[in-house]
């Protein structure tokens, strides 16, 4: 039997916890005069909360017999709720997982259930799973998914998705779900490899998360038969109801490209919806600038503004989540045996806590953030500055593919027939077209075409930030592409925008493998805002260029993508124009 996350404490630790209840030893902390949320009964109760190190050991009217060295916290006139849970985090959106964990924890979101894609793709199995153990040593509770598909076309896909790799992830106690399942059409069309992993996931009592934008009743019914337990892609109140009606848990999303939560809750309330037990909430991997108002604390606030009762809004990112993941014996409520992830609120109108305990450690106290700062050894796990020890030459700037990319919003790309003369050194300023290149991060292959809709006056942009860490170049000028690439080499990964003189207009260095920054959320957010402003000045029409860059090779979105294999037709599952070896 695979151990789940609830197998957290050793026999010795459990014996010590029992000794606290018997009055033989003192608890490490006691919260007195607490008005605490009973998540199951959905009411406020009054009493005291005993904590021993990282676990709640008692909740009730009694005080401990021994309090030698016990820290006593008076919660008079305050409200105590469980630490919030973000169940659908993508912790690699310029920031790295611990940067997000610190920022989230200091605002009351003490548990993150994270996408594993970057670790899965870039690290070998032993190194990746050792990293999960190391990340868990911080006050934040860091849990993970196990991907079945990678949302792009890889040159070495069969090696990546070997049996031993997937099995090891599914069996890990900090991995608590399968998915998200983006390549569900492949399963419906008869592919048994993903179906096998789905059944394995159910065997170890872990839920499966879907990815079903725009799915109708028939598709959702088939997904339920395949064992999918939840989905976060609802874009309307009707979408939420369809998922609930087939027995799924539905997530209400408020993200940078889908800020749907207020609209969805209004539509649900118009339909007299009042049972929130199968609803969760998520920020769905938003970039730093979007999160400046907070994490789940902000979503609770938005939900309450739309008429969701406060306790229900809290449950949507605490108890409901824990129950969905079969972890309510360990997290998600104020009760004996649960992790001491606790938020103390000054009032019910302010979901941002004044005090936060994460695994029994203070990470916010008296309104001041105090998450312990530590230098994490990312280089030990292979996340070092990107060394691009190869060169672009004139022959690389050969554009002969007749099919171009048209960006019609942040993330949707349609094909178009190129009529421009791409032998030109620089494309006409009045045309909404630029050169586009995707190049292997090791310089082995290249895909060269044109793009519409990304900007009218971008001299040169280079980025190593995308799902696979390969190199994207965009610009009106071939000289600009080269200049941006040289800047990317100089800063050893990230995003670089240059002007006509080769000067850097905006830069986001990402020294951890070319995909993650070591700066704080506030600092990365400022860099992101500068990049967005600079791109908008140069004709970028949409709100979120970070997601545009991330998803150029993401085959879970229509209609065409640029992948390691070449330009790919998502619907037909076919490479239209292959990548060219250099």
UniProtKB/TrEMBL annotation:
Keyword Hydrolase among UniProt keywords: yes
Q: Which Pfam families match?
A: Adenine_deam_C (PF13382), Amidohydro_1 (PF01979)
All copies of the Adenine deaminase C-terminal domain together span 429-573
Q: Which UniProt keywords apply?
A: Hydrolase
The Amidohydrolase-related domain covers 79-361
**Keyword Glycoprotein (UniProt):** no
Q: Which residues form the signal peptide?
A: none
Q: What is this protein called?
A: Amidohydrolase family protein
Origin organism is Evansella tamaricis
């Amino acid at each position: 039997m695979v151990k789940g996350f609830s197998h957290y404490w050793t026999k010795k630790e459990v014996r010590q916890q029992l000794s606290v209840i018997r009055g033989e030893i003192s608890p490490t902390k006691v919260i007195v005069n607490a008005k605490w949320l009973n998540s199951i009964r959905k009411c406020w109760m009054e009493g005291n909360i005993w904590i021993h190190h990282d676990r709640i050991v008692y909740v009730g009217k009694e005080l401990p017999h021994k309090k030698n060295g016990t820290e006593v916290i008076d919660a008079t006139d305050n409200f105590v709720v469980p630490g919030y849970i973000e169940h659908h985090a993508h912790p690699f959106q310029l920031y790295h997982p611990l940067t997000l964990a610190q920022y989230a924890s200091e605002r009351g979101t003490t548990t993150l259930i994270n996408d594993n894609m970057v670790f899965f793709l870039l690290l070998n199995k032993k190194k990746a799973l050792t990293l999960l153990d190391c990340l868990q040593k911080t006050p934040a509770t860091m849990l993970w998914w196990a991907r079945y598909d990678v949302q792009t076309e890889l040159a070495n896909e069969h090696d990546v998705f070997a049996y031993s790799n997937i099995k090891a992830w599914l069996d890990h106690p900090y991995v608590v779900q399968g998915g998200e399942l983006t390549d569900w059409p492949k399963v419906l069309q008869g592919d048994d490899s993903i179906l096998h992993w789905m059944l394995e996931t159910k065997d170890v009592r872990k839920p499966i998360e879907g990815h079903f934008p725009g799915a109708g009743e028939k598709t959702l019914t088939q997904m339920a038969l395949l064992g999918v337990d939840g989905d976060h892609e609802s874009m309307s109140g009707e979408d939420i109801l369809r998922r609930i009606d087939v027995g799924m848990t539905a997530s209400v999303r408020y993200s940078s490209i889908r800020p749907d939560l207020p609209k969805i809750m209004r539509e649900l309330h118009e339909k007299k919806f009042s049972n929130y037990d199968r609803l969760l909430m998520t920020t769905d991997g938003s970039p730093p600038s979007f999160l400046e108002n907070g994490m789940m604390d902000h979503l609770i606030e938005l939900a309450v503004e739309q008429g969701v009762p406060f306790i229900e809004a809290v449950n949507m990112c605490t108890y409901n989540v824990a129950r969905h993941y079969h972890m309510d014996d360990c997290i998600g409520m104020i009760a004996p045996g649960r992790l001491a992830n606790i938020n103390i609120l000054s009032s019910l109108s302010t979901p941002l806590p004044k005090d936060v305990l994460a695994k029994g450690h203070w990470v916010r106290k008296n309104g001041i953030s105090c998450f312990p700062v530590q230098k994490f050894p990312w280089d030990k796990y292979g996340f070092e500055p990107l060394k691009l020890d190869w060169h672009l030459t004139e022959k690389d700037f050969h554009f002969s593919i007749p099919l171009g990319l048209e960006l019609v919003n942040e993330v949707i790309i349609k094909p178009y027939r190129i009529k421009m003369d791409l032998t030109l050194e620089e494309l006409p300023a009045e045309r909404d077209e630029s050169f586009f290149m995707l190049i292997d991060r090791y310089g082995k292959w290249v895909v060269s075409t044109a793009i519409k809709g990304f900007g009218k006056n971008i001299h040169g942009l280079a980025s190593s930030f995308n799902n696979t860490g390969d190199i994207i170049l965009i610009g009106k000028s071939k000289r600009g592409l080269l200049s941006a690439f040289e800047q990317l080499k100089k800063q050893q990964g990230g995003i670089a925008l240059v002007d006509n003189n080769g000067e850097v207009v905006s830069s986001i260095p990402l020294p951890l493998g070319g995909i993650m920054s070591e700066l704080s959320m506030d600092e990365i957010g400022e860099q992101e805002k500068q990049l967005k402003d600079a791109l908008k000045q140069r004709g970028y029409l949409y709100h979120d260029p970070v997601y545009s860059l991330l998803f150029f090779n993401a085959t879970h979105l229509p209609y065409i993508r640029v992948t390691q294999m070449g330009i790919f037709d998502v619907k037909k599952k076919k490479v239209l124009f292959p990548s060219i070896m250099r």
